[in-house]
Design brief:
Blueprint (H helix, E strand, L loop, with lengths): L10 H23 L1 H26 L4 H55 L7 H34 L1 H16 L1 H11 L5 H40 L4 H11 L6 H17 L2 H26 L8 H15 L1 H22 L7
Helix pairs in contact: 2-3, 2-5, 3-4, 7-8, 7-10, 7-12, 8-9, 9-10, 11-12
């Protein structure tokens, strides 16, 4: 009588699996404990990644890397002086005005809730509905306290991250200076049989991610500037705050357009409480995002990553929840890298021949 032997993992494979799980947990714990250091490193890496083409173009023109880095930092220094002299004061004034007007906005929300409560017909004034209205009205104070606390935490976080802002230029310099050395060292670690394949995939990923990051930064800046100008023309309060928010929201695929309009609509409503200004605000953002979608992006994004919309949304949600802002920003590049690598795997490029 034949015995059927079931396949089991050898003991050493179980050990490798357990070791991988423990290593993953250790990396997760380390990442949480060193979140500010990782945030500073990611910020520096993205800045270096965006600036590297300028240094490469300078080298192609015969300028040594040391001199090109020096010229780049002189240019950045001039831009920093301009930013600190003109942009920062305007942003500070806008932020202080927003914090000062926040209690007024909260009081108006409570007043509107009371007015809606008074307009409720008697036939709908059952005990259950009345309880829901009272509960919602009572939660406004709690929401106000949470908003105030978040505003304070946001300001505290900005102050704490000033250290990262100061340290980042130093890290960026060394990342750009030692770029070739790091690439050569990592390349030497690759197995000879797979070196050409891995380097080819790396070049594809670099082209896709580099084009996306540089294009997205350009798009966000253009959207922020156009939104700020439009809101200044319309006379909506806190135009700089709303413009920067619109530029940051443009990073989100599909839903970024909707989210970007919410602060502007909020402030427009509380200024005049008429549908005319709301319609003008919606029309302004519609024109801006039409220009962004049909003029700016086709020019900036020369190579599309061609990602599935469902995969894009899932990656943004998952990485955004685990890594916050950096997860949202890097979700599409990571998805693109996975897609490129998986394509080579499906074609059998990793199979020994």
């Amino acid at each position: 009588m034949e015995h059927i032997h079931h396949a089991h993992l050898p003991r050493n494979d179980y050990g490798k699996l357990i070791a991988m799980i423990m290593l993953f947990c250790l990396l997760a714990i380390s990442g949480y404990a060193l979140q500010h250091t990782i945030s500073c490193f990611l910020l520096s890496w993205i800045i270096a990644y965006l600036l590297d083409p300028l240094v490469v173009n300078a080298e192609r023109r015969g300028i040594k890397r040391n001199y090109s880095l020096g010229l780049l930092y002189v240019l950045l220094g001039v831009l920093t002086v301009f930013f600190m002299t003109f942009i920062v004061p305007a942003l500070t004034i806008s932020w202080n005005t927003f914090v000062r007007d926040l209690p007024t906005y909260i009081m108006k929300i409570k007043q509107m809730a009371q007015e809606w409560k008074a307009l409720l017909p008697d036939r709908y004034g059952s005990d259950e509905i009345q309880w829901l209205i009272d509960k919602a009205s009572g939660n406004i104070d709690t929401a106000a306290e949470k908003v105030g606390l978040r505003v304070y935490n946001f300001g505290t976080r900005i102050f704490f991250n000033l250290f990262n802002i100061i340290l980042s230029p130093i890290l960026v310099f060394f990342m750009l200076y030692y770029k070739k050395t790091v690439i050569e060292t990592v390349t030497s670690w690759l197995p000879d049989g797979r070196r050409a394949l891995i380097l080819g995939i790396a070049h594809e990923v670099d082209s896709s991610i580099g084009g996306y990051l540089r294009g997205q930064v350009a798009v966000s800046i253009i959207v922020a500037v156009l939104s700020t100008v439009a809101l200044l023309v319309l006379g909506i309060p806190h135009p700089f705050f709303c413009g920067i928010f619109a530029g940051a929201a443009s990073v989100l695929p599909f839903i970024g357009v909707i989210i970007a309009t919410l602060p502007a609509l909020f402030f427009a409503w509380f200024k005049v409480q008429t549908t005319a200004l709301l319609g003008q605000t919606i029309m302004a953002f519609a024109v801006i995002y039409f220009i962004e979608g049909y003029i700016i992006k086709p020019l900036v994004f020369k190579e599309s990553m061609n990602l599935n919309p469902l995969v894009t949304i899932i990656m943004v949600m998952a990485l955004g929840e685990t890594l916050g802002f950096w997860g949202i920003l890097l979700a599409l590049p990571i998805a693109s890298a996975i897609k490129i690598t998986w394509g080579h795997f499906v074609r059998g490029d990793f199979t020994p021949r």
